[in-house]
Amino acid sequence: MSTAELESALKSGVLSRAYLLCGEESYLRRNYKARFFSLFAGDSMNVTLLREEAANEDNIIAAADTLPFFAERRLVFVEESGLFQKSADKLADYLPALPESTLLVFSEESVDKRTRLYKAVAKLGGIVECAHPAEQDLKLWAARYLLRSGKKIQESVLEQLLAAVGGDMEMLGGELEKLIAYLGARDVVTREDLAAIISVSVENRIFDMIAASCERKTDRALSLYGDLLALKEKPGRILAMLSRQYRQLRLVKAFAAEEKREKEIAELAGQPQWLVRKLLQMGRQLSLSGLAAAERRAAALETAYKSGRMGEQLAVELLLCDSDLTEYSL
């Protein structure tokens, strides 16, 4: 089920018995959570929210079996249960008997589409994938966000904003709010405004760490790593992001070596064009063999800490200090 189909169902009120909101775009999942809850505004007696440990099979079934109180329907909203990544046969067997009076909605960042529970929800209602929007859709969303407050932005400035913030809608929304407040009575966003108040995304800090490491500026790379730790980023997540960036750099550089155009590379790599532009610029100083070595090294270190042979913080430090990653192209 597409997000447009869910929008239509929410507007009409003609809903299925069960839905699964899944994907990495937490902004969209939270937005749809609010939309579902708004259907029961002023009727908290008929709304049950189950999260994480409380969202087990028995609790979900008990809540779903509860009849609505002086109403036609009740909402059971389940968040980050983890049930779509393991066996949940009891709940999968129960779903076909879900009462017509219950609207059951799951919200999960990660799911395994092979599970019985995933397939049971798909049969009963709809699976709504909340992925990061395409570049043009994200630009349109950001421009409309500003326009609602009477603010405008040129496309080139908007691209600079996306390059600084990244494609996460929640973070982008927060930066847009800061811009709106900063502009005051002015109605046009400028590059100077971005330089004055926009926060650098974690993704951009990862880019800077890779650049410093490749230039053998180890102190700089470790300083940036310390900044991320101070922001409460987990070392394991940082290592995973470093690994992903090396992989993206290698893919983009390989496509560029085949003389493919920027737009085509973006389509093949499944990345927004502004990000591909940034990757191409960074990749100019690196060889494909060096990037492949970095990717292998990151994967090996990630395996080492996950297996308990090494602390995750040490794994990141070793990756940033490894001079073998700096094979420059001539």
From TrEMBL:
GO biological process terms, semicolon-separated: DNA-templated DNA replication
Pfam families: DNA_pol3_delta (PF06144), DNA_pol3_delta_C (PF21694)
UniProt keyword terms in alphabetical order: DNA replication, DNA-directed DNA polymerase, Nucleotidyltransferase, Transferase
Reactions mediated catalytically: DNA(n) + a 2'-deoxyribonucleoside 5'-triphosphate = DNA(n+1) + diphosphate
GO molecular function, one term: DNA binding
EC number: 2.7.7.7
A GO cellular component entry from the record: DNA polymerase III complex
Residue ranges occupied by any DNA polymerase III delta subunit-like C-terminal domain in the UniProt entry: 203-321
InterPro entries named among the record's database cross-references: DNA_pol3_clamp-load_cplx_C, DNA_pol3_delta-like_C, DNA_pol3_delta_N, DNA_polIII_delta, P-loop_NTPase
Domain annotation DNA polymerase III delta N-terminal: ranges: 19-130
Family, per entry: Belongs to the DNA polymerase HolA subunit family.
Protein name in UniProt: DNA polymerase III subunit delta
Organismal lineage: Bacteria, Bacillati, Bacillota, Clostridia, Lachnospirales
